[in-house]
Amino acid sequence: MARRRPSVDPDGRMPLREHLIELRKRVVLAVLGMLVGAVLGWIVYDEVFHALQDPLLDAAAERGVVASVNFAGLASAMDMKFKVALFIGAIVSSPWWLYQLWAFVTPGLTSKERRSALGFLAIAVPMFLAGAAFAWYTLPRAVVVLTEFVPEDATNLIDAQTYLSFVMRFVLAFGIAFLVPVLMVALNLVGLVEGRSWLKGWRWAILLSCVFSAIMTPTPDILTMLVLATPTAALYMAAVGISLLHDRRTARRLSASADGTLAR
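Predicted structure:
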């Protein structure tokens, strides 16, 4: 039996009900993909857990203090294992849920425009992973905030929920921050949003970058927030520039086509 495709209006827009049904479908598929990835996360939990706490141990060793991750509650270790498994699942399944995102954004486009999903994934997945890798590279500086006030020769018992949640949110925040500009350019390339529209919102973009960074990096260190906000704002402006350049080329091509038609 042929798969049912979402209905669209003649102008390419989906009715609200169909839009909501499509959203539910894509969310369910994305979550299922993450759960499959979480199975792998459950298997490799021990290795990942040690890797996640290494920045804390290294920062403590540099300052000559003793720090360790402490599981305060009876069920906190199991709860954290579930969270770390889902964290790994989100990263491992990123090609899958990114495809679901693109499929939801572009349900009414032509088959030619749908093929742009391959190009979107070819750029979006590496950018998401690059953001996560950049977060891991800058993480030691953020972790210093958790240990810098500990006196020498003292022991710092850090709650596992607090520390590991901070690390996972930090990594995912960078991945998302690097992903947003790719989505902006993709929406512009398929003609859904003009570059001028992105440019008009640059003030809001900078403000939201700072707010997003402050939420996703829950430390009192403003430098940690700026480490995330600065590349986020820079990538936004780069996406605006690419979109404006594409719009200009498209306008020139349409103008040349129109002139050729009139000449005939």
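Summary: The longest helix spans residues 222-263.
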